[in-house]
Automatic annotation (TrEMBL):
Transmembrane segments: none annotated. Residues 11-115 form the DUF559 domain. It comes from Sphingopyxis alaskensis (strain DSM 13593 / LMG 18877 / RB2256). Signal peptide: none annotated. The lineage of its organism: Bacteria, Pseudomonadati, Pseudomonadota, Alphaproteobacteria, Sphingomonadales. This is DUF559 domain-containing protein.
Length: 148
């Protein structure tokens, strides 16, 4: 069960979705297409925090960190946030802004590789869009000719 999300966090997340940074926009253009069948959310509220990107199936938060994350109290804040997320079964990967600006495609591929590795370690099946489609009758052992 996921933690409650304060209304103020939800409102802030909605505002941030409209005002993505350039690196966020570049990465979102790729992740929004559900590459490999994996769905991502942008500016996703998680308890009191807002995650840049989130893959719920893999319990993975993706944060794009600029230079501000190295200044003042931000490193301590990021550490508290990561601890809180881990306590709620969400791991965080931090990606430098420069990496996204240099190649959003390469960053997206590394994220997808990590998602796949995590899902394999969790023993989760591939996303439903990649599994073979079966009708309920095939699953139940019914054959079409028996239904006539």
């Amino acid at each position: 069960m996921r933690p409650d999300k304060p209304a103020s966090t939800i409102r802030r997340a909605k505002r941030l979705r409209r005002d993505l940074t350039l690196p966020g926009t570049l990465l979102w253009q790729i992740l929004r297409t559900a590459p490999g069948g994996h769905r991502f959310r942008k500016q996703h509220p998680a308890g009191p925090y807002i995650l840049d990107f989130f893959c719920a199936r893999a319990d993975l938060a993706i944060e794009i960190d600029g230079i501000a994350h190295d200044m003042g109290g931000n490193p301590a804040h990021d550490e508290r946030r990561d601890i809180w997320l881990r306590a709620n079964r969400i791991d965080t990967i931090r990606i430098p802004v420069r990496a996204v600006l240099d190649s959003a495609e390469r960053v997206a591929q590394s994220i997808l590789d990590m998602v796949e590795d995590r899902l394999n370690s969790f023993g989760k099946a591939p996303p439903s869009s990649l599994r073979d489609a079966t009708s309920p009758s095939q699953v139940d052992g019914e054959d079409q000719k028996d239904r006539i």
